[in-house]
């Protein structure tokens, strides 16, 4: 194959793969190839090795991938590696005439001492700003049903009171609506704990639900 005569009509990623197969290039791997290789090796090393062999070792060796994992900046904050990966995905979707629509999920983690719900709301907004800058459309936010998270939701201008239910909010400076989803597994666990502690609760028709039936 005359690579020089064909390279102008080959996309960059395919061009790099072809050059490596023909042993015409051994430079740094592109971000696109990195984003392709890392998740596939993570989820199935065997499948990744098969693909790598199919492409005649044009993809990074697993030892190279391990070095990349070890060099990721994992300091608190929004890592540049994560944002770059998102941008690559956005670019990929654009090439297919599509938009990248995502769901944002947050879990309990230690950030620093005495982080209050207002600061958590600020972190959510900052995350949404970063994703918006990367042209990602966020439709939902999922979190556990803890008191601090409900307070955070109120700071985001959502409301979970039964008389004024509004399980969504708008990102500041935008008309984009983000819907809030309470993590179903965690909410079921809270119901179980409540029933276990109180022993009897009542449904909307005042019919008792008793813990003793679960014990039996």
UniProtKB/TrEMBL annotation:
- Annotated THAP9-like helix-turn-helix domain ranges read 9-68
Instruction: State what protein this is by name.
Output: THAP domain-containing protein 9
Q: Which InterPro entries match?
A: THAP9-like_HTH, TNP-like_RNaseH_N
Organism placement in taxonomy: Eukaryota, Metazoa, Ecdysozoa, Arthropoda, Hexapoda
Show where the Transposable element P transposase-like RNase H domain sits.
74-120
Q: Which Pfam families match?
A: TNP-like_RNaseH_N, Tnp_P_element
Record-annotated membrane-spanning stretches: none
